[in-house]
Amino acid sequence: MNPDVDIAVVGAGASGLAAAVSAARTGAQTLLLDARPAPGGTGGFSGLTTLCGLYDEDGKFLNDGFVREFAEALAETNEAAPARASSTRDLATPHPGVSQRQGRVWVLPYRPTRFRELASQLTTNTPNLRAEWNRSVTEVVCAGNRITQLNGVRVGAVIDCSGVAAVAQAVGAETLATDARTQAAAIIFPLKKVRRVFSSVADMAQVLLPLARARFPALHLQPGFAPGEFTAKFAGSAEQVPALLAFLRANVPGFEPCETVPAEITVTARAGRMIIGAYVLTGADVLGGRKFADAAARGAWPIEQWPEGQAARFRYLPPHTHYEIPRRCLRAARFENLFMAGKCLSADADAIASARVMGLGLATGAAAGVLAVDSLTSTRFK
Predict the structure, then answer these.
(1) CB of 108 within 8 A of CB of 60?
(2) Which of 39, 85, 139, 245 sits at 20 to 30 Å (Cα–Cα) from 206?
(3) pTM to 2 decimal places
(4) Nearest Cα residue to 183 out of 302, 269, 105
(5) Nearest Cα to 231, choosing from 185, 265, 195?
(6) In the 8-state DSSP scheme, what is residue 349?
């Protein structure tokens, strides 16, 4: 078969961007498809403002290459910005582009508009990469254990970065799934006009405890980039947000004028469906800091479970430990030219609760892009 494209990537979030750009940079003709009208995925459209999973416990990059390139391009630095937010002030106002410690982990604050801009630049300016928007997976044709066509386009290999294993489900590949018991959807919205000052974890507890006593689902507040602004992650439903805001205004000093923009309330899937590969990464691998001879990426993010309506549960790796994700987790077990990354990588419900974060999505996406190209027998990529 003479394919129309060498690599087709489904999904233009962090992992799909990394996969498509990395594949195209080898010289492979690459097609990127996404159901949205523009690239960015969860990083650009969910309301999230922190990129997680980039760093070890000391704030150092775990993965170089495309991951570090993307993070540094995402940064918005200026001469007035501090070199790094203080590790003793977890609730300090973040600065986009400056890594910040939050509890026991480090994150990179960013602006969603900048994430979308960077995603657009990459998909527009990378040679050998063609992108199509508003395109869902509608037809997948197989010959034996190989995918030969995707949406009428002949392909050499496919990388599923859809987050829901859209390609795998279309061809009947074996999958695992998360549910609301471990990865309930997040209700994310901006909270503005807060006049309360937070300088410690105790200050935040004085806000969250009254909500818990009133039996509201768990709420997490992350400082925004402007005074009085926060990003709220709510374990309840979008319909409960007005009652939540009314309670804060009436019962928590400093929240009397707080407000949100209803159009900016988003429901975001934390994890979805994972494709079974030659190896299934486990929670024990994560917490044990397991290493692999065929390592594709490194991670140190905790196992982060979000049961529906409850507070998050975190299980941290031992001090100064990281784990590795093998390349066998990026290739489907039953289809020789189906690869996956991000939330679709081969992992159980515990492991994906760590590996699903965007930093690891970038790392596994970049690795899957190169792995898919390497799997092709044509010599024109050499």
Answers:
(1) no
(2) 85
(3) 0.90
(4) 269
(5) 265
(6) H
